[in-house]
Amino acid sequence: MPYEILVDDAKLVKPIKTRLEGQRCFVKPIYRDGDRRVIRTTIDDEHDPLIADFCKRFYRSEVPDDTGIVGFTRRFLESEGCEQTEALLDCLPRRYTIYSPLLLFNHSTHRSFEHPAWRSYFSEVGEAAKAKYFRQMLAQLFPPEISHVATNMPIVETDVMRRPFNIAPLYGTLLSPQAGAVGQLRADPQPADFDRTLWCHVVQNGIHQLWAPMFTMFSRGNIKEKKRVLDVFPEIEGNDVVDLYAGIGYFTLSYLKRGARRVFCFELNPWSVEALRRGLDANSFSRDRCCIYNESNETCVQRISESSVRDLRVRHINLGLLPSSKAGWPLALAIVSMQQPLPVVTLHIHENVHVSAIDSGSFVAETLNQLAQLNGSYSYAAAHLEKIKTFAPDVWHVCLDVDVTLSTSHIRLS
Ligand SMILES: C[S@@+](CC[C@H](N)C(=O)[O-])C[C@H]1O[C@@H](n2cnc3c(N)ncnc32)[C@H](O)[C@@H]1O
């Protein structure tokens, strides 16, 4: 079966299409799948350089778009003699994400398998009929490697680890019955527990990322920002990086791919730490290049000074916590102070910011001002503001690159 390419960034569609056309490998039509574009190819070798670096999947003759889910569901319900077909179709979720081997349906108040109409239908027909519905859906509409289905519920905003407490399994086992209580597993997993749950895998920008969806969130929307790390900062090569909110390696893996000598990673969630270790192995990055601390980043100065790295050369510090990474700013500046003589250090400050504060320039001005108040010995220059993705109406997840250098008033001439 041939492959189709899944594209998150609309700007990439044209160059990919042109390249495929040049090799006579492009197949019409380009279509939408959720918020992605899908480009079909005639290529059936996953290692073919034309498609090797892209997120991709097999396709069959039918386009598995929203009509596919609706049409399939209608046929299924009618063949089962269901009398509430129209009511169920009204609240059928149409959008989903594929995180192989998991098909993850979106949730909204109006359209969800968690909607009371679907919950009552499933409880009426029983587990076997529910399983038959999803089994047939997977067989008819999705690639063979997709084996599990769940509903993606909103994360709890107050949880600093941003864990998916409410992910709702629909088909297939996300967590083995042999595993212990979920609360205990979240806080203190034992080595054997890591193999008792489902792991997902995506390739973005040629980088493998793994995570256990029961215990760690994943955001596909950062793909552009990861690409920026790979493309824009050649000075990463041979220097050190600190990732104060490492997660599963969202950015750490890109820094390593770009040639960082070493990345110091701080991460509270043991499941994300395990995911990061699996990510290192999947990308064949030596574990020696990544110092992982499964603890609060408040220990960062102590940990980095205790490490075996002698000539510390931290050139980038990533602060990737939403809605705000402010708590990490003093820590980042303390890391800057550890180095003598001081090179430029670039802070990557992630924040959710209202569009008015972006347009007026007040977000940048206030950030620089607050950094100056934290430590007046340095100069702070806003090098770039990247709008990564919309977080809510009029609110952007942004990354502000701030170059930190020793203030000229503090440079002593000898
Ligand atoms: C969700 S990730 C950020 C990923 C990425 N920026 C995104 O939007 O997808 C943030 C990570 O920081 C971790 N974290 C939060 N506070 C922390 C702290 N004080 N020290 C270390 N890790 C922390 C959380 O457990 C979480 O895995």
From TrEMBL:
Keywords: Cytoplasm, S-adenosyl-L-methionine, Transferase, tRNA processing. Pathway: tRNA modification; wybutosine-tRNA(Phe) biosynthesis. Pfam families: TRM5-TYW2_MTfase (PF02475). One of its GO terms (cellular component) is cytoplasm. InterPro entries: MeTrfase_TRM5/TYW2, SAM-dependent_MTases_sf, TRM5-TYW2-like_MTfase, tRNA_wybutosine_synth_prot_2. GO terms for molecular function: S-adenosylmethionine-dependent methyltransferase activity; tRNA 4-demethylwyosine alpha-amino-alpha-carboxypropyltransferase activity; tRNA methyltransferase activity. GO terms for biological process: tRNA methylation; wybutosine biosynthetic process. Residues 139-406 form the SAM-dependent methyltransferase TRM5/TYW2-type domain. The keyword Glycosyltransferase does not apply. It catalyses: 4-demethylwyosine(37) in tRNA(Phe) + S-adenosyl-L-methionine = 4-demethyl-7-[(3S)-3-amino-3-carboxypropyl]wyosine(37) in tRNA(Phe) + S-methyl-5'-thioadenosine + H(+). Its main location: cytoplasm. Gene3D superfamilies: Vaccinia Virus protein VP39 (3.40.50.150). It is found in: Cytoplasm. Coiled coil: none annotated. Belongs to the class I-like SAM-binding methyltransferase superfamily. TRM5/TYW2 family. S-adenosyl-L-methionine-dependent transferase that acts as a component of the wybutosine biosynthesis pathway. Wybutosine is a hyper modified guanosine with a tricyclic base found at the 3'-position adjacent to the anticodon of eukaryotic phenylalanine tRNA. This is tRNA wybutosine-synthesizing protein 2. It comes from Torulaspora globosa.
